[in-house]
Amino acid sequence: MKAADLFDLARRNLRESLLRNALTTLGIAVGVASLVAMLSLGIGLQKMANRRLTRSGLFDTVLVSSRAEFRGFNRGLRPQATGTRVLDENIRQEIARRPKVVEVFPDIRFPTELEYGGKPNLAVIAGLPLSAAQNEALEGMQGRFFSGPQADEAILLADFAKELNPQPAALIGRDITVNYPERQVLANAATPAGFSVIRRQRALRVVGIIEHEPYSGFRGIAHAGVFIPMPLAESLNVLQPGDLRGLATPDSPGRTYNSLVVRVASPNDVEAVETFVKQSGFGVFSLLDATRNLRRFFAVIDLFLGIFGSLALAVASLGIMNTLVMAILERRREIGIMKALGASDGDVKRLFFAEAAAMGISGGMFGVLLGWLLGRVINFGTRIYLQHQQLPSEDVWLVPWWLVAGAIAFAVAVTLVSGLYPAARAARLDPVQALRYE
User: Fold this and answer.
1) pTM above the 0.90 mark?
2) 253: which residues sit within 8 A by CB, 6+ positions away?
3) Which of 58, 141, 254, 326 is 20 to 30 Å from 84 by CA-CA measure?
């Protein structure tokens, strides 16, 4: 039997029992829609979590320090070399030249006396890189970000700002004065590490207020209340704890860093940078294990959502089997005539498979459309709910192209499997008995 005749005959047979076949196809569509909706929800939640965590700056960041600095962080350390090297500008540039490294900046933070309204306040100031403008912590910031790398401007943490003024927003545009210890290298020092400490004072204009600390998953600027541009913080040459250790280190190459923060292009590049840093003799800490656990968690979630979504499709497959079995009883004479005219058992099987595939393709395509519409409704309702909660809008539902193709292919596969028994039963019919039916 030619393929064109086979599909034309299958189409005619499906049209004869239009209502029953339409209901069976609708059952397939509902099953596919539930599968698409559940898997799309899992994919959307995973994308949302990855997007938010990536914007937080935690999962593409590596904290580098001498091993002595990480005695409390030993879980992230696997020493590869003995001895302790000094973090200096040469090491910083060496790491910055590594592939996939976006930027390397020191973790500059220092306690200071801050004056506002004629009253002194204790505060911790931290340098904030200009790339932090895209950090999740700055979403919903009151005011604006720094106008330039050397701008005498500050962003305050909301909790600290309330200590200065019960109405934090009133601080924006006001000046605060900070007193800090400046490290000044001695011209006649015997070693590069020789320096003196001078008290300095600087006025800063408050330009913004944030609710959460950028890079809050790491120690350092996570505990600061005042943030200034990183280039400005470096130019202030503030005395750091590493400077004091450098006095006791004969081979110290001058200015050293307490720790360095390394940002890479994506979380997938963290492991390579970690390996290089460890081999260089430094301690390293990142949230790489957390990202692996997160991916494992979402893989399990997607698996269970797919299983539950497939249950509806499995129920629909029973409807297909029932429809095709009923078609055998109603078309015994037709099958008998076909076999009497020379149709083989294979032709009869292919006919029933063609009918099952037609219902699978139609149900799969309609189910994908139905699942897509359901997802749009979910996204719309989620946005309204988040807006009422005064939270930023998020899309929790996402349908990638591969899910569309996979859902249709899965629907066709299920219908073909469901048609195995009816097709085999139809092929086994005795043409003589079939022609005597009724």
Assistant:
1) no
2) 86, 88, 90, 192
3) 58
Neighbouring residues of 193: CB distance < 8 A, sequence distance ≥ 6? 243, 246, 247, 249, 252, 254
Please give the pLDDT value at position 41. Answer: 78
- Using alpha carbons, select from 61, 73, 90, 77 the residue that is nearest to residue 257: 90
* pLDDT value at residue 430: 67
- List the one residue out of 132, 152, 160, 140 whose CA is nearest residue 226: 160
Using one digit for the tens of pLDDT, what is the confidence trace for 151-196?
999 999 988 999 998 898 899 999 999 988 887 776 655 555 566 7
Give the H or E element holding residue 410: helix 401-418
Q: Which two tokens stand for residue 143?
A: 């005011």
pLDDT digits (tens, 9 = 90+) for 203-258: 999 999 998 877 665 555 447 889 999 999 988 888 776 565 555 554 545 567 77
Distance CA(110)–CA(124), nearest Å, equals: 6
> Whole-angstrom Cα distance, residue 332 to residue 429?
8
Provide the token pair at 247.
């006095």
Identify the three-state secondary structure at position 66.
Answer: coil
- Mean pLDDT, the chain, whole residue set: 76
3-class DSSP state of 99: coil
One-letter amino acid for residue 35 of the chain: L
Q: Note whether 109 and 227 are within 8 A (CB).
A: no
Instruction: Give φ, ψ of 261 to 5 degrees.
Output: -110, 125
User: What Rg do the C-alpha atoms of the chain give, in angstroms?
Assistant: 34
255 DSSP 8-state letter:
S
Give dist(CA 217, CA 11) in Å, integer. 61
Residues 6+ apart with CB under 8 A from 207: 143, 144, 145, 146, 147, 153, 154, 155, 172, 173
Domain ranges of the chain: 3-54+293-436, 60-102+262-286, 108-256
Helices (H), 100-208: 158-164
3-class SS of residue 434: helix
Tokens of 117: 């309204």
33: DSSP letter? H
Tell me the C-alpha distance between 411 and 314, whole Å: 10
